[in-house]
Each structure stands twice: as structure tokens, then as C-alpha cells.
Amino acid sequence: MISKISFSKLVRGEMRQMNWLTAVQMVVFVLFLPFRAMMSMAIRQNELMREGVTTYSAVEQFSRHVGLGHAENTGLILVCGAVCALTTFAYLHSQVKQDFYHSLSLKREELFGVKYLSSALTFVVAYLTGQVLTVLVGLFYQALTEHTVFEIALASLQGILFYLCSYSTTLVAMMLAGNFLTTFLAIGAFGAYMPMLMLLRESLESVFLNTKVESIRSLSSQLRFTSPWAWCLYSGSRAGITSRITGAEKLPTAGELCQVVTITAVLTLAALALYRARKTEAAGSALAFPILEPVIKVMVTVPVSLVAGLIAYELTQAVFFEVMFILLFGALACVIIEFIYRMDIRQVLAHKWQFAISIVIGCVIFFAYRFDLPGFNTYLPAQDEIIAMSVSTPDFSSYIAYGDNGEIVYSTSYRERLDQVEWEAFDKIYELAEDGVENVKEYGLSDAIYDQNVNGVYIKYHLKSGKEVYRYYQIDKELYCEVMNGLFQDEDFREPYFPICTWDEETLNRISGIWVYLYGYSKETLLVTDKDTVNDARMEEDLEAESEFADGSEAEELSDTTEDVDEEGWYYVESYSVLDITVPLYRLSELMEAYREDLKEVSFEDIYYSDDNSYIYFYLESTYQSDDYPVNAKFTNTMALLSEIYQEQQG
Predict the structure, then answer these.
(1) Helix (H, G, I), strand (E, B), or coil: what is residue 52?
(2) What residues contact residue 493 under an 8 Å CB cut-off, 6+ apart?
(3) Beta bridge partners of residue 516, listed in sequence order
(4) CA–CA distance, 310 with 316 (Å, rounded to integer)
(5) Residues 546-550: what's their mean pLDDT?
(6) What is the maximal distance between C-alpha atoms in the chain?
């Protein structure tokens, strides 16, 4: 049995043998942390001196390059973890070296612990040296604060945990592989396989499940769960520069740090278990555990087959060629994998049953999507299974909702909007869903239905079971307008689509600016409520502009009128003027009341299918986010108020 003292001696001895690794990491982190901060401070100071600026926030400049939230630092730490694991346990790929290490009077667990701890300490020494030197740079430039020192210390702890997580993940890949080629392939699979599957799934759904509504959680936000490396990169780059400077960033909590510790512990124990079970003669083989060969072959071949089927569908949309592509590329993938396993061209067809299983699974998955065998696109629950339904379309351009506590919620998906407008008297909405399902059954994936006689509609089913189902349908436009006109007569139904109807005093105080963009109006035609008069005025403007261009004279520039000249000197004029009005904040209440009154009088079709729709934009809390509402000649009260405001501004 090895005592604690002898174990520590073994660790120190191993570290002495890896001095080169410590030195390399030391150089990397000194250049990447303190040197980068010092160069940034010096360059910025010189720039300000040349510009004659005397006031300079050294703390702000220093904070931009240290502490939390730097994805490049996290990426470098993860790379160091992988490199250290590869170099420390490289002997696993050599049977001679394994025989030597395993002949020592050490249990495998103890040998694993010595190697693991010693290589981890090489990183800790190098990384903490870089962080300490960074603190000294801040001290030299008088840019240190208590918060900055705390953030650097927290970043150091987080960095060490990320290193160990990357190190343990790489170890698991090494334990499963028997040589360097398959080790690198395994590391790549650990990092890229799940994102590739997610992308493939999204591609299949976007091509074949044409009624799918995008999830609230985007693909990019799901990537953090695809590998330990992705988790660390996401966690290490959350804090932004501005928030770090003010000290108001979201620091990693104890729970988040514990999550990384848990992931690392699980991976480390898995690597240790594999190390104990791994046979010495596995060195040099493709895989350390031959039982995994058919599993990995299927895991690789099936996605290749699906991609091949998608390519064939996009090129031909013929089942024969889709089957041929799946067979051809699936078989090719199996041959390549078998060659990597054996490194013998004569054995690439040795396991034909694995070929068959992989290709059959690929065909089943592809054609299940291809012909919608689960019935995803034609799903329509019975009415007695539904509690409520909701409907929304791209016509509804309001993106901002307000939570129960008064907080502003920036809605970026149709699912969120559907959640806000549920309606329990859903009989008419159910009629829309029935028409959408019938169109799917009749037209399938054909583009024949996508014409001016249909309207894209998002519908949600809230079932009694608690399940929420979202679908996108192409619905007859006449039916859609008829149903929506009837529903919009009910104020309780209409108000959720227009948050302006329920704004209170607190919400009004949050608005920082109001801009109105009137499309197709100039100063002469501003706010004419009669459509024919507006169109006549536009026509006169067009004719006047064309005549002035034709006789070679310089035309008077219209508001936001675009002009172009071809090579022969002919002028082409797009007389689509845009007039913008800035509404003073003290007129906000009047504008809100006028708009509310107009909503009671106009129909859904008047609002969204008018030829002269313009928009009112309400900007909230000094942000670039806005809540926008349509306005046209039918909004007589709103237009009259805007005309009054514009005339006041024109004097």
C-alpha cells in the first residue's frame, strides 16, 4: 500500500517530468492574460494622449480584459485541458508503455490519481501565475478595485473547474479509443455529434413537417447541452463587457459552479471505471471495447443515410433516387468505418448484418418524416379534448407583452404570442384549424397552396391533459378574414392582441419615445382619410416627378423617394414616400385613448389588409425594442390627432 507521503512524492516526481508542459502553459497564459491587459492599457493611454484627452478611466479599460465573461479565455482553458489529457495518458496507446506502468507496485486507481493530479497541477500553477501577474498589471496602472480582484479570483476558480471538466471529457474519449486516430475522432464526436444530430433533426422537420412552429428555445440555446465543452463555453461567456464594468453582471452562482463540479466528477469516475476495465492488449486497436463497434457504426451510418436522403429529395423528390442515395452513402459510410476498425481493405464487408441494420434504420426514419407516418402535419384533436385555443399570424406585429408583475417581456416567437392570446370560446378558431388540416391532406408538401388565396396562420391547442400543441397552417384567406372579423368584435378577444389597450400608468412611464412612419404620404397628402383622394395625390406626384425628369430639369426631392439611373441615362422613380412624425411624450395618453377608440370601430380586415397601412412605434425604457401598431385612414381619431401634432410641429 502506498502511503500519503509516497503518493505526494510520486505527484512531485511526475510534475518534474512534466516541467515542459508547465512552461508551455505558463508562456501561453502570461501572453494571454497579463501581457494582453498591459498592451491594451498602454495602447489606450497613448491614443488618449495623442488626442489630448486628460480624463481617462483606467478601471473601465482594465475591466474589459480581465475577469469573467471572456469566451476566448474559456476556449483556451478547454484546449489546455484536452492537450494535457492527451499528453499525460498517451501511454495508453502503446502496449509496451502500458506494460511498464502497470508493472509498478501501484494499483491502477493510484496510477490514475497520480497522473490526473500532477497534470492538473501544471495547469493550476501556470494559470494562477497569469492571473496574479494580471492583478499586478492592474495595480501598476491604478486600475484595481475590490470588485475587480473578486472577479479575477472567481474567474480563476471557474477556469480551474472548466479545465478539469475538459480534461475529464478527453480522458473518457481516450479510454474508449485504442489509438490516436480514433481518439481524435472520439473527441470530435464528443463535441460535434450532438450538434450535428440537432441540425439534422431541424433540417428534416423544416423540410417535411411543414406545420411545425419554432420552439421558444432556439437551436443555439440548446447547443449548451450537447457536450461538456459547450456547457463550459456557454457558462464562461455570459457576462457582458458593459455589465462587468458596472459590477452588475450576473456572476456564476454556487449552484452553477456545483453543476460543473458534478459533471466533472461523473466524467472522472467514468474515465476511472473505463481505465480499470480496459485491457492492455487494447492498445493499438481502433476501439478499446470491441462491443462498441456495431453501436458506433450505426450511430454514424444512420445520420449519413439521412443526409443522403435529404439531398436526393431536394434534387429529385423521387422515392427511387432517395432509396438509392440512402443505400449508396450508407454502405459507403459502413465501409469506411469498418476500414478504420481493421485497417484491412479485405475485411470491409466482414459484418454485412451491421450494414443492413444501419441502412434499414436510416430508411425507416427518413420515410417516416418523408410521408409523415406519425401524422404530425394532419394532427387535429377532438374538440372535447381542448380547453382553449389561440390564433396568431405574421399580421400581428406587436412583439412586447407585459407580465403579471408588470415586467416587460420581449416576445420573439409565435409560441410566446400564442400563449398570450388563448381563447376558451374556440369554435371559430377550430374551423380555421380544420381548414388548415384539410389543405395539408389535399396538397401535402406541394407549393400549389402557397398563393394569394391563402393565409399562413399559427394555432395553438391547449388540451385538457395539460399538453400544448402548436401548428402552422395555410388557410383560405376569405374564411380567415371572416372568422377574425367576427372574433375581433369581442373586446375581450381583441385586447390581448393589442397590449396598448391594457397599458396602465406605470407602463406609460416606461415609454421613452414615439415615432410614427406613414408610408405613401407626403406633406401634401398627409392624413387624407379618403383613399381615392390619397391615390389621386400620389398619382399627381408621380406624374410631376416623371415630367421633371423627362425634360432634364432637376426634380424636387420627395420624402424618402428612391431614384436610380441606368447606363443610358434614363431615370426610374419609385414614388413611395415615407413621412415620419415624432410624437411628444406628453401627448401619449391622448394617442393611446384615440387608438383605443378606433380599435372599437375598425374590423380585423380593415386593420391588416388596408392598402395604406403605416405604423406607430413605441420605444420602451431607452432601448431599441419597440412595440409597433398598424394605423391607416380607417383610424380616424388617431389620424386626426397625428395631423394636429404634425401641424403644430410645422408651425
Answers:
(1) coil
(2) 423, 487
(3) 581, 616
(4) 10
(5) 45
(6) 104
What per-residue confidence (pLDDT) applies to 574?
Answer: 39
CA dist 10 → 7, 90, 97, 272 (Å): 5, 18, 18, 19
Residue 338 has what pLDDT?
A: 86
d(CA 494, CA 607): 12
Kindly provide the b/e burial profile for residues 87-113, where b requires at least 16 CB atoms within 10 angstroms of the residue's own CB. Answer: ebbebbbebeebeeeeeeebeeebbbb
Residue 641 near residue 594 (C-beta atoms within 8 A): yes
> What is the chain's percent helix, strand, coil content, to nearest 5?
65, 10, 25
Separation CA 576–CA 560 (nearest Å): 7
State which H helix or E strand residue 387 sits in: strand 386-392
pLDDT in tens, 626-637: 778 888 888 989
Specify the pTM. 0.75
What is the Cα–Cα distance from 641 to 630, expressed in whole angstroms? 15
Helix (H, G, I), strand (E, B) or coil at 214: coil
User: How remote is the C-alpha of 102 from its chain's centroid?
Assistant: 47
CA distance 146 to 67: 12
Amino acid, single-letter form, for residue 507: T
- Alpha-carbon distance of 91 to 87, in angstroms, equals 8
| Residues 538 and 525: beta-carbon distance below 8 Å | yes
Could you please report the per-residue DSSP string of 455-497? EEEEEEEEETTS-EEEEEEEEEHHHHHHHHHHHHTSHHHHGGG
Q: Side chain identity at 592, as an amino acid letter?
A: M
Which helix H or strand E contains 636, and what residues bound it? Answer: helix 636-650
- Identify residue 123 by its one-letter amino acid code: F
Model pLDDT for residues 454-510, shown as the tens digit of each residue: 888 999 999 999 999 999 998 988 899 999 999 999 999 988 888 888 887 877 888
CA distance readout (Å), 436 to 209, 261, 377, 449, 472: 14, 50, 10, 11, 8
Q: Which amino acid is at 558?
A: L
Element containing residue 628 per DSSP (H, E): strand 626-631
**Whether the Cβ atoms of residue 332 and residue 308 lie closer than 8 Å to each other:** no
CA distance 498 to 592: 11
Burial class (CB in 10 A: 0-12, 13-18, 19+), 543: exposed
Q: Is 384 exposed, middle or buried (0-12, 13-18, 19+ CB in 10 A)?
A: exposed
pLDDT bin (cut points 50, 70, 90) of residue 452 is low
Three cell numbers, residue 92: 495508453
Cβ contact 470:458 at 8 Å? yes
